[in-house]
Amino acid sequence: MKAGDIFSYAFGGIRLRKLRAGLTTLGVVIGIAAIVALLSITQGLQTTITRQLQTGLATDTLIVTAGRGLGAGMGGGFGGGDSGFTLLISDTQTIDALQNVETSFAIIQRTGYIQSGNNTRSTTIVGVDFAKYLSIYTSTFVAESGDIPLNPENGTVVVGKLVSAPWRNETVLFSANDSIKLLWPNATARPPRNETYAGHVAAVLKEVGGFGLGGPSDSSVYIPISQAESFFGTNECESIVVKLTNGDKATIDSVSKAISDAFDGEVSAISATAVLNLLSNVFSIIQLFLGGIAAISLLVAGIGIMNIMIVSLMERTREIGILKALGMKSRTVLLIFLCESVIIGLIGAFVGIASGWGLANVVAVFLGRGGGFMGGNQAAGTGGMTITPLLTPLVFLGALAFGVGVSVIFAIYPAWRASKLKPVEALRYE
Amino acid sequence: MTAIVEAVNLEKTYMLGKVTVNALRGVNLKVDKGDFVSILGPSGSGKSTLLNLIGALDKPTGGKLLVEGTDVSALNDNQLTDLRRRIGFVFQFFNLIPRITARENVELSMSIAGVSKSERRRRAEEVLDTVGLKERINHKPTELSGGEQQRVAIARALANDPKFFLMDEPTGNIDSKNANEIIDLVKKLNEERSVTVIMVTHDQHLAAQTKRIVQMFDGVIVKEIVT
């Protein structure tokens, strides 16, 4: 029997049982739609977040923090014991002496408050060397108004865009040359008291967007490192940013190791690239997880297909007997049944991909309207994040193959049983 | 001349639950080209079993069955299937596919045999015309009378230019007027086109119209009458 004839005979069988075939197909549609919707949203989210992280990202820098291992370096503190080791501001001298290091500087970071009128607003107070900070974050540590002094005098403050205009409207709390008062709750003093830093705004930064991975953030204020030392009363720092002579992987690896060795393994150095890779891994896991959940629904659809095919097989036993008496080969009977499942799988997959894609776009619009997936608090500095769902060719083809594959796999058993029917018995079947 | 069908000491045993049934116990039969044989016998005499064996729907358990000189018991499933394509089956319950039209039913047997679409169409119209159903070719089986359905089945059997016709109680499910028309049609095909016919029936009157009557009882042939 010719392939075209097998196909049209199988299609005729489906057409006769429209409602049943429709419901069976619906199972596949739902499964595929769930997979496509979840994966395209996750991929869209990944692209958006990666792009935000890459804003002003310097690939030839390392960030050194106290603690062992990448996990500790990320601030999580899991893996590796806490030995109480802390980085000192003067440790930059040790790092500067290493090969392939161009320069390095320390960052002191505390949660504090800005006093504006009778209100206080919480912020992150960051102490850095302005000149070195600018040399690394050339595109993001940029003044929108005022000037960033390279040799700042005492009391200089540079504020992020969202500190100046937290609601993104005409209400501006601080402009360049305004005086500003920062408070830091000193919990180790007896009695505990708020330390005060009175200064003036030298510059308001251009809006950075993104999360500011190691770099400037829209919701922080910046003060000279020497001032931060006396303000916070410390010679310890949270992290040291290291600028390398180049961004090659070999350089990154060798300097990371050299730094770790220099501090007897008590610090870890991670590169921005490593963070991006880590993020990409996390997203892979999320995709696998979500895809797996969606795949379960497709599995259920597969069992539905098998169920329907077995019922159909019983109904059509006599028909199969006739076909075999007319000289149809067992293999052809098998192919007819498999062909029916391929048709159901194909229709289900295409409709499923289309509806999944539609669903993803609807969800994306809702997420976008909610003012970003982080909860919509714009002052928190996430920015209005729009997610554009991504339907990659891989997801498209994968969904198609998966839909058809599941349909066919679950049809194999009924089809095989149909093909094995003995003509004499099948003809006698009522 | 080689016989079209030749059974030599043919035996068929099968299990019905735990009981062994000797359906055929040494049948000897020879059918030549152009013959019109009726196999007569009460139910349980083994006539349907014999028909299934000759029709390559089942395999014998003993003896020999030659179709045009080929031993059927030596064939594998695929070869049996190929053989069935050249046998014109006509069943008591017509066994048409209900969801497709008369013409499509006739075309189906040819499509199984791999005949091209245009040739199928031409030949289907030709054989349906032969059985007198030219006006009804686009009707589905449910829209046809029993007699008409059996004519479609005969047309379907004719389509692949069969070696012989194998009919199982062809008039058993239709009224006597239509039954006569059917048997006249088969007689005409036998006389004018030398179509060889082997027909199973328990109807004496029907058997009397064939060239030869083979009487079966309890798995063996007990009497042969040339009319």
Give me a quick take on this structure.
The complex is a heterodimer of chains A (430) and B (227). Chain A is of the alpha+beta class and 430 residues long.
Q: Please provide the ordered H/E string of secondary-structure elements of chain B.
A: EEEHEEHEHHHEHEHEE
Number of strands of chain A: 12
Give the termini distance of chain A in whole angstroms. Answer: 27 Å
CATH architecture of chain B: 3-Layer(aba) Sandwich
Neighbour order of strands in the largest sheet of chain B: 6-7-8-3-9-10
CATH topology of chain B: Rossmann fold
Descriptive account of the structure:
The complex is a heterodimer of chains A (430) and B (227). Chain A is an alpha+beta fold. In chain A, 51% of the residues lie in helices and 19% in strands. Chain A contains 13 helices and 12 strands. In chain A, the strands form 2 sheets. In chain A, strands 3-4-9-6-8-7 form a 6-stranded mixed beta barrel. Chain A has a two-stranded antiparallel sheet with strand order 2-10. The longest helix of chain A is centred in the C-terminal third of the chain and has 44 residues, at 272-315. Chain A is elongated. Helix content of chain B is 34%, strand content 29%. Chain B contains 7 helices and 10 strands. Chain B has helices at residues 47-54, 77-84, 102-112, 117-130, 146-159, 176-193, 204-208; strands at 5-16, 19-31, 36-40, 62-67, 70-71, 87-90, 164-168, 197-201, 212-217, 220-226. The radius of gyration of chain B is 17 Å and the shape is globular. The model of chain B has no long low-confidence stretch (mean pLDDT 89). Chain A binds chain B through residues 1-2, 5, 9, 12-13, 16, 318-319, 321-330, 332, 422-424, 427, and chain B through 52, 55, 57-58, 77-78, 81-86, 89, 91, 95-97, 99-100, 108-109, 111-114, 156, 160.
